[in-house]
Structures are given as structure tokens and as C-alpha cells.
Design a protein that fits this description.
Shape: elongated
Number of strands: 17
Strand order of the largest sheet: 12-11-13-14-15
Radius of gyration: 40 Å
Helix content: 10-25%
Order of helices and strands: HEHHEEEEHEEEEEHEEHEHEHEEE
Largest sheet: 5 strands, mixed
CATH class of one domain: Alpha Beta
CATH superfamily of one domain: Cytidine Deaminase, domain 2
CATH topology of one domain: Cytidine Deaminase, domain 2
Strand content: 15-25%
Length: about 375
């Protein structure tokens, strides 16, 4: 009985109730698909060469389908056979593709809070001479496009996709002066740098012992790093008590102007790097003619200063300041007046282990 049972069991294993059906054939047929039968087909060649590494390896696997399985047919169900065309996608509408003429010549000016871009490109100006042609602009956080579409199918475009810093797109704009130029105004996103460096200049000025006029200067390089600080004071190594601090005296030798070193000169002399060439200065006041000479000689390219708003205008109209402006203009140094909306510098400090609730800022 035991051997008979064993024999019966082995027979049952040999005759599986399931039928092998290759993928791609009908679920009721064990025959290979036409593609599998072709010895020269790419499918067969891939399976022969790569075995189970073939991309088509799934086609070589066998699936057992129960004999009582039913083929369900109906709309949307595929039971084998060749692909059938259900519907055709509508043809896309033809697009009006403009031929482009790039604008490659333009100039720009950086005035701290904004950057102005100018172009006098002949092709762009010629296109805008037609009253029916308008200039268009598109701004992103890091770039902009300015263009005009001509009636003959050309798009004259100035494209600057990557700027040096982020801008505020909704506050940017363009302006057309027909026959002259087209300008683009870009509003910088990080305008707080100006307030920050100017705040440091005012904070530095607090070190001065001159009770009548304290001046402060910050020199910043092209990486926005402070490389020098300066405030007005007596020459190094000389006691403040040994020299006069009076602004006016019958004896000119007893006036502070004969001895004091201005903030700009001290900053340039006390720089923490070899040179301040191509740096920029933030000053609490417009430099005098002597400081202007040092600025020109040191190679500084830009100066931002607090515009004086005295009623009599004495400081702004002084010959010394006027001489400084002349030298800056001839040397190509940008002069950027800063009008303060707030007049008070507040530094709040609670303790060694507590952070200030407000950073130094102009109020």
C-alpha cells in the first residue's frame, strides 16, 4: 500500500493540472506568439544572448492557467492579438514661432538699491520706431527678458537669464525712449546691505572723541566683506589730551582741523588687506577734498554717503566738498547719496548670554 501510494503521488506531480501559457499568447492556447517563433526576431536574439538579463526576460516565463479559467471580454479589455487603433489624437494647432535677433550690446549702472540696464541697439530701436510695435518684458527672481516683435516675424530680444543677485520681479520695469534708448530698472532683493553697512559706519563713528562732528567709514570689498573701519581722531601714538579739540580759535594752530585725521584716511590706512582697489565706501558724510584724494589714489570705485539735509546747505556747498565731487567725477568714481528715513541708531544689549532683540539699525 505504501509503495502504491507513493507511485500515485509521483504520477500526480508529473501530470500537473495546469497548462503552461507563454506571455503574449491567448490564455486558452499554449502556443508561442508569432514573434517568439521567429528565430531571427530581436526578442528571441535578446533572450538567447542575455538570458535572464534580457530586457524581454518576462516573455520567457511560463504561467499556469487553470483549465476552468474563463476569458472575459468586453469594452476596454484586451485578450490578445494585434494592437487596435481606438482613436486618433487631434493634430496640434500650428504655433507661430518667432525668429530671434539677440541684443548683445548693453550697459548697466548699479546704484545700490537698484540696477539700471541701458541698450541703444539699432535693431531694437528700429523695431520700436513703428507705433504698432511695443516693447515687452518678463522678470524672474534671477533674470529678465526684454523684447519687441516686428511685423515681419522677427523678435528682437535682450535676454539676461542669470543675474549676479536676486531681484524683486514685481518691482522691476522697462522704459522706452523711442529713437534714443530702452532702459530696464531692476529692484534688488537684498537692499538691507546698504542699511547694514551704513549702520556699521554710524556705530564706528561713536568711537570718535570729537563731540562736535563724529565721522565713520566702512570699506567693503566685492565679496561684501568689511575690510576696514575708520573714525575721526588724533594721529596714532599721540594722546588726545595733548592736542586741541576746538573748532574755532584766534590761533589757527589751536584748532582741531590742523591735527585730526578724518575717518576715510584712518580706514584706508588701517585696512586688513593689501589693497582696497575696486572696493566701495560707506560714509556718514560726504568726504572732504583731502579724503577724496586718498579715495582716488587707493582705487576705490564707489562711495555711498549720507546726504546732508541742513537748511543752510553749508556742508554740501562747501568748496572742499565741491572739489571732492570734481575729483570723483574725473576719476570715474560713483557717488551714491543715501537719504535716511530714520535718524536714530539703537543698539540693544541685554547681557552676555542673551542675544539682542534688535540688530544695529538706522531708525
Amino acid at each position: 500500500m505504501s509503495s502504491s501510494a507513493t507511485s500515485t503521488s509521483e504520477s500526480q506531480k508529473a501530470e500537473s493540472p495546469y497548462k503552461a501559457v507563454p506571455v503574449g499568447s491567448s490564455s486558452t492556447s499554449g502556443e508561442e506568439s508569432d514573434e517568439m517563433k521567429r528565430s531571427d526576431s530581436k526578442l528571441r536574439k535578446s533572450l538567447t544572448d542575455k538570458g535572464d538579463k534580457s530586457y524581454y526576460y518576462a516573455h520567457s516565463r511560463d504561467f499556469y492557467v487553470p483549465p476552468d479559467a474563463k476569458v472575459v471580454t468586453g469594452p476596454g479589455l484586451i485578450t490578445g492579438g494585434q494592437p487596435e487603433l481606438i482613436a486618433r489624437s487631434p493634430s496640434p494647432e500650428p504655433r507661430n514661432v518667432m525668429k530671434k535677433r539677440p541684443v548683445k550690446q548693453y550697459s548697466w549702472f548699479d546704484d545700490e538699491e537698484k540696477v539700471k540696464v541701458y541698450t541703444e541697439d539699432p535693431q531694437l530701436l528700429a523695431a520700436l520706431e513703428d507705433d504698432s510695435v511695443e516693447a515687452h518684458s518678463r522678470f524672474t527672481a534671477t533674470g529678465f527678458d526684454l523684447w519687441a516683435d516686428t511685423p515681419d516675424g522677427w523678435r528682437v530680444i535682450l535676454s539676461v537669464p542669470i543675474l549676479n543677485a536676486e531681484i524683486v520681479p514685481e518691482e522691476c520695469k522697462h522704459r522706452v525712449s523711442r529713437g534714443k534708448r530702452v532702459s530696464v530698472t531692476l529692484k534688488k532683493k537684498n537692499v538691507h546691505r546698504t542699511c547694514y553697512f551704513m549702520s556699521v559706519a554710524f556705530l564706528t563713528a561713536m568711537r570718535s572723541k570729537d563731540r562736535e562732528s563724529r565721522g565713520g567709514v566702512v570699506i567693503v570689498n566685492d565679496q561684501n566683506r568689511i575690510v576696514a573701519l575708520g573714525y575721526n581722531g588724533m594721529p596714532r601714538g599721540i594722546s588726545d589730551r595733548d592736542l586741541p579739540w576746538a573748532s574755532h580759535h584766534e590761533d589757527k594752530a589751536q584748532e582741531k582741523h590742523m591735527y585730526i585725521c578724518h575717518a576715510t584716511i584712518n580706514a584706508i590706512m588701517n585696512k586688513n588687506q593689501h589693497s582696497v582697489r575696486d572696493c566701495r565706501i560707506y560714509a556718514t558724510a560726504f568726504p572732504c577734498c583731502e579724503c577724496a584724494k586718498f579715495i582716488v589714489q587707493s582705487g576705490i570705485r564707489r562711495i555711498a554717503y549720507v546726504a546732508d539735509e541742513q537748511e543752510d546747505g553749508a556742508l554740501e556747498d562747501s568748496p572742499s566738498m565741491e572739489a571732492g565731487r570734481v575729483m570723483f567725477s574725473l576719476a570715474g568714481i560713483s557717488m551714491i547719496p543715501i537719504k535716511l528715513k530714520r535718524k536714530e541708531l539703537v543698539v540693544e544689549y541685554k547681557g552676555q548670554n542673551e542675544l539682542p532683540s534688535q540688530s544695529p539699525a538706522l531708525r
